[in-house]
Specification:
There is one protein chain. By secondary structure, the protein is mainly α. 85% of the residues lie in helices and 0% in strands. It has 16 helices and no strands. The two termini are 28 Å apart.
């Protein structure tokens, strides 16, 4: 029964990911084609600012929410009320911090971008923080139907708004930023609707200092890891902007957006795994992780090979000649992004086991390597240097994580990486089912 629920939730989240990725791809294509590489790069840097502040300041509350709901230590009413209060307080502090740092870094990392746009985009921080804290509530309760609906509607509104604001009107970067805010605001409205629908109330009397203390204690360990993971994902864009300017950022942003579509396989499964591992026995945790990690890696390798072969034609057809340099960047990124699919599974398993600090140890080392390689290689090799730095750091992170996980759980590395006969039987079974339906 438990395995059946896990597969059902994984399938629902996988289906949602396909829809979200399709909407996200259409959004990226629309922005890239209409704004061009330079303005698209400016847009990517502007929205990177609030996402970066939210990541740096969220204190790991979303991870704590999933973990403690799985442990059933606090009532759901307590969790949701405390999270709302925290989201308000943290977002206000984030805005103040953003206002303080923009003058310091606007000329180095955001050169050519109007300061008024950087300041204005900070208004989205309360929305982003609220969404992050409360969506994790639905993940923790394994209500993936609601979790998935929320994600899809926000992306859909963002795309429709983009068509109106930058294609039909057109309002350029301002229209794209308005659509970004509107999409996230819609997500907030849908989240509040489902909170009310499920009879939860946001009241101060349910605020819990005990939950807050536990949440911060667990969250801080995962928070540092999340910050470093974010830097591992996006420090290349900041350094490209610093050394090369906004136009190359636009090309690189297209490449990274296409290459990361490969995570369509690992993201939904990792999302479902975290709460399931948190509420399972150790034996169930290890068995589930082994099966999922090796199959995610196998499928990701196949998808990566296909994307490598088709990357030239994908870039040309979707984005045009102005972005052709992105094709080689994708090919360089693919080895790292492919194996990182498996690394994500292992990371979520460790977090579900209550050991998020294991992810932190890996992240510290790999981020230092990533930044060092970027600083050395970007001035010499440009975008290709940035892609190699990121891909190499992902591969390094994967190698370290697989060794740490195997040592900690006493698992055999081949069991985590290589599909076995039982997996092949499952593939044959699924294939037969599909063929019969046809």
């Amino acid at each position: 029964m438990a395995n059946s629920t896990f597969l059902k939730n994984s399938f629902l989240t996988f289906t949602r990911n396909i829809v979200v990725i399709t909407l996200g791809l259409l959004t990226t294509v629309l922005i890239a084609r209409i704004l061009g590489p330079e303005k698209q790069g400016m847009y990517a840097l502007i929205i990177l600012l609030p996402n970066m502040l939210m990541t740096f300041m969220n204190l790991g509350i979303s991870s704590s929410t999933v973990y403690y709901i799985g442990k059933r230590k606090y009532s759901l009413q307590t969790v949701i009320s405390t999270n709302v209060v925290l989201s308000v307080a943290i977002s206000l502090i984030s805005i103040i911090l953003g206002v303080a740092i923009i003058p310091l870094f606007s000329e180095s990392f955001f050169d050519g971008i109007p300061v008024i746009l950087l300041l204005s985009i900070l208004s989205v921080l309360p929305i982003l923080t609220f969404n992050n804290f409360i969506q994790s509530f639905f993940q923790g309760t394994e209500d993936f139907k609601t979790f998935n609906i929320i994600a899809v509607i926000g992306k859909l509104v963002n795309l429709i708004s983009l068509i109106l604001t930058i294609y039909l009107l057109p309002l350029g970067i301002t229209g794209a930023l308005f659509s970004f805010v509107l999409g996230n605001l819609t997500t907030t409205i849908i989240v509040i609707y489902y909170i009310i629908k499920q009879n939860y109330k946001i009241v101060m009397k349910d605020f819990s200092y005990s939950y807050l203390k536990d949440s911060l204690k667990y969250g801080f360990k995962s928070h540092l890891s999340n910050i470093l993971a974010f830097l591992n994902y996006r420090v290349d864009m900041l350094l490209i902007s610093f050394f090369l300017g906004p136009l190359p950022v636009g090309i690189y942003n297209v490449a990274i957006n296409i290459a990361e579509r490969l995570w369509i396989i690992s993201k939904p499964v990792a999302t479902v795994m975290f709460p399931r591992v948190s509420s399972s026995s150790e034996k169930e945790q290890n068995n589930l992780t082994a099966v999922v990690s090796r199959n995610v890696l196998f499928l990701s390798i196949i998808a990566g090979i296909v994307l490598y072969i088709l990357s030239d034609i994908v870039i040309y057809l979707l984005f045009g000649e102005a972005y052709l340099d992105a094709s080689l960047v994708i090919k360089i990124l693919l080895p790292g992004i492919t194996v990182f699919s498996c690394e994500r599974i292992l990371s979520n398993s460790l977090a579900g086991k209550g050991k998020p600090e294991m992810n932190l140890y890996t992240s510290i080392f790999t981020v230092i390597c990533n930044i060092t390689l970027n600083v050395i290689l970007i001035p010499i090799y440009g975008l290709n240097g940035a892609a190699f730095s990121t891909s190499a750091s992902y591969v390094l992170s994967f190698i370290i994580k697989i060794v740490i996980y195997a040592h900690f759980t006493k698992s055999k590395i081949p069991k985590l990486l290589l599909i076995d006969q039982n997996d092949l039987y499952l593939y044959r079974f699924v294939l037969k089912k599909v063929m019969k339906r046809k």
